[in-house]
Each structure stands twice: as structure tokens, then as C-alpha cells.
Amino acid sequence: MELKDILLAHRKEINVKWSIVVDKHYCEQGYRQEPFEDTLAVNLEAVDANYAVLANRDFAPLDDFIEKIARKRFAAGFDLSDVQMAFEYYRTITIPIITKELPQNKMTPALERLNNCLSYTIIKFSDYFQNLHEKALKEHAEHLELEVMKRTKELAELEAKYRVLVEEINDGYFVEKKGRIIFANHAFCDMHGYTPTEVINQPYINFVASEYVSKVTSYFEKDLNRESESEQYAYKRLHKDGSFFPTENKVKRIWYKGDYAWAGICRDITERVKMAERIRESEKLAHIGQLTTSLAHEIRNPLSSIKMSIRMLLKSMDFDGDNKKTLEIADREISHLERILTEMLDFARPVKLCFELLSINQLIYSCLEILKVTIREKEITVIEKLSKRMSPSMMDGNKIEHAIINILLNAIEVLPTGGIISIETHHRKLDHKPFISVEISDNGPGVTSEDLPYIFNPFFSKKKKGTGLGLSNVKKVVDAHGGKIAASATSKGFSISFTIPVRKDHV
Hints:
The protein is built from 15 helices and 12 strands. It has a 5-stranded antiparallel sheet with strand order 2-1-5-4-3, sandwiched between helices. Strands 7-9-10-12-11 form a 5-stranded mixed sheet. It is elongated and about 115 Å long.
């Protein structure tokens, strides 16, 4: 029999086996979400397209199918490597059939044509799929640039508003003489958490954060001879409860009750500082979007081709121990580079949530099951303190699961053999609204107080092989759910906790 006769005779068998393998091995990537009949229909198109190439050297049907499936899988959020491996299973299923029925003298040319067909498919698909990614990332980068312009305008309008309010009595107003407060309005007292009686005759520096005392004092100690001269400065005010808040003061030298004094208007600029931070973050995202677009095109395609070539060599040729080990190491390192690119793409792309009614405790159990081999290898003890009262809530299970795995891996990597990880869940109230709270702590080396404020910043990492995007992507997922995340150093190690709002309906 000829190759085309064998493929035609086993057309239905190849399609069914291919569909079953894809559905079984890639259910988490989305194939299982489609009806099996749809998978059969799509794979049959691929079977016929491959047949046209292998039997008649006609690439037109395969080109049409590649374009169609690339658009479909991209829209559904599939990863490039997952679809590439789905194509690879056609070769895995077809080779045993060919070797069984094709004469030996025709085997080598047939396998060569099959490998060439697969290489053509993967390269063609990768190029087209990456072009779709590039287009989406460019559109997203343009959107971010528009957001930066919009927020820059909003910031300018907000600053103009504050310039007007600085002259209004509704802001905190005070009079300072010889270093002590001799008058303060209610707004000033409220801003600092005191009553008017507690404020009067207190040293002004008692209301200034310690690191800003010398800066603020320098303004009041200047020898200004004219009443009209004034100073404006930003600092952090000290609240009665010990917290700090960004504040701006405009002070002026005045003549008050027979002596010189300082009159000041102080206003809270927390919102302005937050908006400036959001603008900076949008600018970072815009740059990252441009960077990842270039990296995806220039690096990922060659990596995918090299990876597939190595795997084809491992499957089709016999190597001795050292050579095989070398190829396997190369395959693992390429996979590591692909994960780095994926983290960068995940950070650059906007988060799209698919809400389901899920139990946070069950998600945590699932994460621990996935990581149980790694946990066992390092002899790590996991202490579970999961509240039995945790009711299901609407969330994106895949993204929350990936976020929890990221936090756990971060702990596992730094823990010594025999370390301890503690996972705790409970309900809590924030602004009178119910939230789910998850805290993951470990007894590892922890994080220095200098590094702690930057732990969720993009590209901040102390690990030798880290991209600094793992915890940034975790924060991105939590933010997308409307939650909050924080890191803290504890007496026994390090802790990361996040909260997401409890939802019972679709959003």
C-alpha cells in the first residue's frame, strides 16, 4: 500500500484517537470546555488538510486550516505551546499506523514527509499566532498610552483644583508661633486626629513624621523680613494613631498679636499621590507592552522551533546516555525561557476574568495537590488553617489558582529542607463589606525591611533565576478581582495575604 492509501483507510481512526488524546491531555487549557463533537469536527479538518499535503503535496487546505484555528485558539486564550503540542499528537498517532502497514523500503521517505509536514504546520501556525499576539499587544499599548494622556490631564485638573482650595478655609488652617501651635481650625485637628484642646500649645513638630522634621523646621527658621514672603512644601503629617499621610503646606510670615508668626494652610494630597503612582504604573505597562511585543516576535518563535526540533530528535533517534541527557537539559532550559516570556506577556496583557462560583478552600487543596511532589521532595510541612465557614464565591478559578501556586512556589524556593508553610483562610469585613482573606506564611529567611515595599513591583527579584514578575502578576490578578494584597515580615519568617470581595452573582 501507498502512504495516501493508508492515511485514507485510517482517516476516521486517526481523527478519533487524535481528538481523545487532545481532550484528555489539554482539558485545563480549554479543549474540555468544548463539546467532544466539535473537537472531532475540528480535528477532522486537520486530518484532511494533512492528507492533502502528504498525498498530493497540496498545502492550500492546510494553510486555510492554520489561519482558521489560529484565530479560534487565540480568541479562546490558548497558549502557543499547547496548540503546538496538539498538532504534534497527529504525528504520534500516525507513525504506529504507518510503520505497521507501509513496506520497509517506503518507510524513511514517508516519515520524512510526515516530519516536514509537521514542521511546516508548527512554523506557519507559530508565525500567524504570534502576529495575532503582536497586533493585540500593540493595540493594548496604544490603549495604555491613551490612558496615560487621560490621567495626565486628570492630574493637571486635580492640581489646579488644589491650587484654588489652598486659599480656602475648609482646609486645615493653623498659626504657629515660636514653634508652637497657637491656633488651629477643626479641619486641621480632624486631619491629625486630635481635638482643638489637645492641639493648642503643642509643638508643631509633634504633627510631623520624624523623617520630615528637619525639612519642615528649616522653613520656619528662615529669617524672612517681609510679611508677604511665603513657603510651600510637601511632607508627611503624623496622625494621632501613628499613621502617616502625604500633605502639602503653604505657610506665610504674618504679624500676629504684636509679634511675627507663621500662618499655614495644610491639605491632604493622598489622592494626588495615588494618581501620580497610577500614571507611572500605566507608563510602565505601556513600555512593557512594547518590549514584550518585540520579544515575542524575536525570541519566542526561534525558541519554539528549537524546542520542537529537540523533541523530534529525542523521539526519532537513539542517543547514548550523555547525549540524551544534554538534549533533555536543553529542552528544560528552553521551557524555562518560554515561561519567562509567558510571565512578561501575562503582565503586559490586560486581565480577562471568567467568573465561577467556587470554594477558595477547594482551590487551595487543588494547588497543594499540584505541588505535592515538590513539597515532599523538600520535606516541607504544610499547616492548613482553612475556615470551615468559607462559602463559595464568584471568582476566576484558574487565575486565583495560578496566583496561589505562585505564592507557594515563592515560599518553597526559599525554604530550607524541613521548612514550614502555613495557609489560613477566613472571612473578614472591610468597609462593612464581606471579603475572603487568604494568608500564606513561611519560616524562611524572609525579606529585609528595605526590600519589603518593592516586593510586588515589576522586575523586582532577589532570586538568581527570577524575572521579578511572579508576585507582580499575583497582585494584578488580585487587583482585577477588586481585592488587596500585602506582604509582611513576621517574627518567624515571611507572609503574603490577599483579600477578594465575596460575590454571589456574575459581574
